[in-house]
């Protein structure tokens, strides 16, 4: 009959959405028996169009098993592409964390040195590294005004350092500012642009933070499990190899399997590489990845949350510097760093100890 041609394995005849709808229409065993035994010509009851369609479909051997296999094929390419893109994002996120100069050299070093200055004279005053979780605690340490946090201080130190570096390297912009306050704030403006851009520099880290390792693993397993469904349908199909539609179905399934096996192997290999890199980067910062087994991607979540806090602090620091710039234009006497000396006097007194030695950050060891 005409509808047999739609169940011969050609997914182009349906599309994934229609195949999903057909699967939802699959009758229970009891309903299937009733439909098969129903004789409309001798019954006062009339079947509605949907019931007539189901009764016709049931004449196709294991029709809904075919539909399930065809749906798997229809979704195969998009699911493979999704997994490949996801694992590529994880790999790139690991590379971003490991190679970001600003994140490693400036943020981590500045935070580490700040902590050492706060704990000078204690058994915690000579730390060489710290866990990324510490970044989120910087907003818990408040200044004497009860509002400004230690992260504000760290950001001010970083933008001052970055601004000086950019000003020194930019040979095309001569330093003609006569007002030292304005000159200092101009450097900070340049530095703030760099620090505020860290979120874009770690864009794939934020994407990785939204991923669920269990979901990705289940998708990979589902991808491999679909091959078993097709193999089962092919085994059932062997009993019907004398029928034209059965032969067409068999040929299309076999052709797909040859391509799918190679794709699945590549996806599984990419998954292994990506998870290995995530484990390595976790150990790089946290020392023991076994503690993060329940949430393998937690490291990305910590950085994402920190970047969100950092963005807010950068905006606040920018507003403070803008007000200071406005005051300097009106020739009001203001200190070069108006916020920090009064709020964190102990650290400010040691501010000169901040180093621009790039080798210290890259040689950081994990705790």
Automatic annotation (TrEMBL):
**Has UniProt tagged this entry with the keyword Ribonucleoprotein?**
no
- Gene Ontology MF, one: actin filament binding
Superkingdom: Eukaryota
UniProt xrefs under SMART domains: FH2
InterPro entries, alphabetized = FH2_Formin, FH2_Formin_sf, Formin-like_plant
One Pfam family in the UniProt entry? FH2
What residue range is the signal peptide? none
Work out whether the entry's keyword set contains rRNA-binding. no
Q: According to its UniProt record, where is this protein located?
A: Membrane
Q: What is its main location?
A: membrane
Q: Which UniProt keywords apply?
A: Membrane, Signal, Transmembrane, Transmembrane helix
- Look up and give the membrane topology term: Single-pass membrane protein
Its Gene Ontology cellular component terms are: membrane
Ranges of residues in domain FH2 = 1-336
The record's comment on protein family reads: Belongs to the formin-like family. Class-I subfamily.
- How is this protein named in the record? Formin-like protein
């Amino acid at each position: 009959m005409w509808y047999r041609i739609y169940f011969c394995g050609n997914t182009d005849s349906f599309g994934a959405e229609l195949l999903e709808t057909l699967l939802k229409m699959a009758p229970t065993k009891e309903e299937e028996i009733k439909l098969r035994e129903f004789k409309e010509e001798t019954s006062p009851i009339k079947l509605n169009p949907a019931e007539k369609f189901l009764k016709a479909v049931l004449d196709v051997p294991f029709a809904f098993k075919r539909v399930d296999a065809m749906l798997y094929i229809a979704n195969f390419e998009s699911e493979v592409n999704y997994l490949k893109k996801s694992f590529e994002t994880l790999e790139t996120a690991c590379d971003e964390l490991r190679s970001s100069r600003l994140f490693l050299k400036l943020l981590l070093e500045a935070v580490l040195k700040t902590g050492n200055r706060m704990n000078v004279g204690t058994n915690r005053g000579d730390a060489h590294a710290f866990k990324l979780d510490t970044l989120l605690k910087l907003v818990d340490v408040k200044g004497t005004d009860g509002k400004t946090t230690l992260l504000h201080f760290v950001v001010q130190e970083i933008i001052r350092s970055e601004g000086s570096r950019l000003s020194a390297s930019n040979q095309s912009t001569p330093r003609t500012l006569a007002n030292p306050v304005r000159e200092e704030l101009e450097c900070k403006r340049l530095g703030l642009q760099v620090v505020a851009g860290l979120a874009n520099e770690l864009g794939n880290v934020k994407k990785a933070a939204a991923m669920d390792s269990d979901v990705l693993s289940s998708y990979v397993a589902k991808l491999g499990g679909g091959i078993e469904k097709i193999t089962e349908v092919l085994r059932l199909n062997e009993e019907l190899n004398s029928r034209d539609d059965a032969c067409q179905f068999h040929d299309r399934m076999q052709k797909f399997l040859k391509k799918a096996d190679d794709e699945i192997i590549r996806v599984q290999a990419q998954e292994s590489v990506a998870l290995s890199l995530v484990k390595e980067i976790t150990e790089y910062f946290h020392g023991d990845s076994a503690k993060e087994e329940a949430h393998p991607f937690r490291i990305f979540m910590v950085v994402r949350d920190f970047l969100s806090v950092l963005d807010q602090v950068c905006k606040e620091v920018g507003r403070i510097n803008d007000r200071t710039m406005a005051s300097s234009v009106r020739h009001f006497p203001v200190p070069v760093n108006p916020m920090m000396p009064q709020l964190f006097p102990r650290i400010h007194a040691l501010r000169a100890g901040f180093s621009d030695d790039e080798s210290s950050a890259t040689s950081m060891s994990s705790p």
